[in-house]
Amino acid sequence: MCQESTKFKNVWTTHSASPIAYERGRIYMDNYQCCITSIAQQPRLIYQKSKCAKSEKIEDALLLECPLGEMLPSPSDYKASLIVLTVQNWLLRLSADSGEVLEKVYLAGSCCKFFRYLSWDTPQEVMIVKSAQNKLPAAARQAGIQQSVLFYLAVFQVLPLSFIGMLEINKKIFGSSVTDVAVSNGILIVMYSMGLVRLYNFKAILEQFMEQPFALGQEFNWNGQVGSVGKYPFGLPCNIKITDTPPLLFEASSLENAFQIGGYPWHYIITPNKKKHKGVFHICSLKDNTLAKNGIQDMKCCSLEPDWIYFHPDMSGRIIHVGPNLIKVLKLKEVKNHADQMEIAEDFTIVANRENCVNNNVTVTASGRVVKKRFALLDDDPEQETFKIVDYEDELDLLSTVAVTQIGADGRAHLDFHCNEHGSLLKSIPLKESWDVTYSHEVYFDKDLVLHIEQKPNRRFSCHVYQMVCDTARDDDS
C-alpha cells in the first residue's frame, strides 16, 4: 500500500441526478435501485431494478453482515443484505447481491411517520428505527391541544430479523423541553432545548417497562386492535410503556447538545453551554466530573468552519482534534505522583503544508509606502491548504486525511496516509478531479480502494473510483 511504486489510478467515474451512497464495496445509485461493485478491477453492475414509485422511495439504509459462529434459520441470512426504510413506513430487508426483497415489516399506520432514521444500538446486533418528531396539526395547536408523545422508537434484533419492542418518548416522563433522542451502545440519550443531555440505561428500560413481548407475524389483540405484528395495516404494537422516569445515569450541559464519551478510564467531551465558548472543548472524568489536567482544548482558530474533536475510533482511548491547518492526536495519561488524576498530553500532530503562505497584515510597496490590510486572512481561507476530512482505516491501521487548496474556481485535493501510531506521512495520493469547497464531499478509503463522492451545482452528484496499481517490476528491482 505505502510503497513508492504503488499508485492509485482513477479507473471509473459516474454521474447522477440523485445522491450516491457507498457501503463496503458497493455503490448505490438511483435511490438504491442500482448497485455497482467497486471491488472488481473495473466497477461493474450487480443489479438494476426498475424505477420505484414515490411512495416506495427509500429514505435510509443499513448494511447487515452475517455474524460469525451462529446458526441462522435461512440460507439468505448468511449473505450480506440491506435494511432499508421507505417513505411509507415499510422496513425492507433486501439481498445485497440482487436487490430482491427478503423480508417486509410494516412499522405503523398514520399515528406516526418512520423515515430517515435508521441507526445501530449495537452494530450488527440491535437496530433502532426512530420516528420523525410528532407534531399536531395547526388547527389542533391553535385549539390549545397539547402533544405529549414526541418520538417512537422501534427496536429490532437483526439476523434473524426479530422485533424486540416499540416505545414512546413522552414529555410527561422526560420533560417538556426534549428536542431529540438517540440510542447508542445500550444508552438512551435524551437532548433538551437548553443544551442539557441526559443518559439512561436503555436495556434496563426495555426489561422494566415491557408489557408483553411479540414476534413478527404473531396474531395479536392489543388495545382493541386485532392483527398481525409487522403486517399492514396494523404495524407494530407499542408494547413498552414507560410509566415513570427511569434512573438517571448521567447528565451534562453542553453547547448544541454536543456530548461524547470515550477514553480509558472513561472521560467525556463537552463545550461549555455559552456561544462565546464555541470551539472550546472540556475533557472531564466520567467518574467524578473533574476536568483533566490540560483538559481545556482550544485551537483559537479564526475560521468559517469550526474545528471538531472526537475519540479515536481505533479504541486506543486517544482523542483527535482537527482544525483548519492542524490535526492533534491527544492521549490520556496519569499525572505523575497522582495516580487518581489524568492529564491530556499530545501524542503527535499533523500540520498542513503552508510553507509558501505569508499572512502579513502589513506590506511595504517598492516605493516604500506602508500598506495595512483591513482584514486578516482566515485560517481556513480557500487559497491555503486546509484539512477537510480525517478518517481511520481499521484493517490497515492507517489514519487518512484529505487536504484541499482552492485557487479561483479550481480546487486541488490530496489524500494522505499517516502512521496511526506516530503520525508520520507514509503516502500521498493526488485526486485528479477538481474539488469545489462550497459543496459537500465524501471520501472513503477501503483497503486498496479510494472513492470520492461529490455534490455539484444544481444537485448533481459524481462518484470517482481509484484502484491501487502496483508496479511489480520496480518492486523486484528494489
TrEMBL record:
Q: Name one GO cellular component term.
A: Cul4-RING E3 ubiquitin ligase complex
Source organism's superkingdom? Eukaryota
One Pfam family name from the record? DCAF17
Q: Which UniProt keyword terms apply here?
A: Membrane, Transmembrane, Transmembrane helix
InterPro entries, sorted: DCAF17
Which biological process, per GO, is one annotated for this protein?
A: protein ubiquitination
For this UniProt entry, which segments traverse the membrane? 149-169, 181-200
Looking up PANTHER family in the UniProt record yields: DDB1- AND CUL4-ASSOCIATED FACTOR 17
Q: Write down what this protein is called.
A: DDB1 and CUL4 associated factor 17
Species of provenance: Taeniopygia guttata
Q: What is the lineage of its organism?
A: Eukaryota, Metazoa, Chordata, Craniata, Vertebrata
Which gene carries the instructions for this protein? Answer: DCAF17
